[in-house]
Amino acid sequence: MAIEVGTQAPDFELSDQHGQTVRLADFRGAKHVVLVFYPFAFTGVCTGELGALQRELDGLQNDDVQVLGVSCDSPFSQRVFADREGLDFPLLADFWPHGATARAYGVLDEERGCPLRGTFVIDRAGTVRWSVVNGLPDARDEQEYLKVLAGL
């Protein structure tokens, strides 16, 4: 079960596709975060969803908002995926311990070993302000993220 809106977002420390450490706590007091869990790099729905985020990046990521993608793929896979798809936002590797961050957010599919399609909008104070969780085959609508961010 995904964490609830109004709760404090679990902190994490993960490597991005460039080997840089990213901590949720680093954005506290500075930026809202759109945290987007996706099952696997290089798969059809995931590629489509992250491509849609990239196309809307000017409206989603700015001085006030940071987009972070998270999957259980390795940082090396994340790098090739980001380069191939032209993704200009951090892709974080929830690789080891496998799925620990997805589990903390309640979106790890334990049977398949990958996150469900969970998105969490986290405000500057670290509180979850909005979330949506879709099953593996069901893409999310990035336009919803824009509406939520406009209301923060």
From TrEMBL:
One of its GO terms (molecular function) is peroxidase activity. Keywords: Antioxidant, Oxidoreductase, Peroxidase, Redox-active center. InterPro entries: AhpC/TSA, Peroxiredoxin_AhpC-typ, Thioredoxin-like_sf, Thioredoxin_domain, Tpx_Peroxidase_subfamily. The active site is at C46 (cysteine sulfenic acid (-soh) intermediate). Belongs to the peroxiredoxin family. AhpE subfamily. Residues 3-152 form the Thioredoxin domain. It comes from the Bacteria. Thiol-specific peroxidase that catalyzes the reduction of hydrogen peroxide and organic hydroperoxides to water and alcohols, respectively. Plays a role in cell protection against oxidative stress by detoxifying peroxides. May represent an important antioxidant defense against cytotoxic peroxides, especially peroxynitrite, which can be formed by activated macrophages during infection. Its EC number is 1.11.1.29. It catalyses: [mycoredoxin]-L-dithiol + a hydroperoxide = [mycoredoxin]-L-disulfide + an alcohol + H2O. It is an enzyme of class 1 (oxidoreductase). Homodimer. Forms both dimers and octamers; a tightly-associated dimer and a ring-like octamer. This is Alkyl hydroperoxide reductase E. It holds the Pfam family AhpC-TSA.
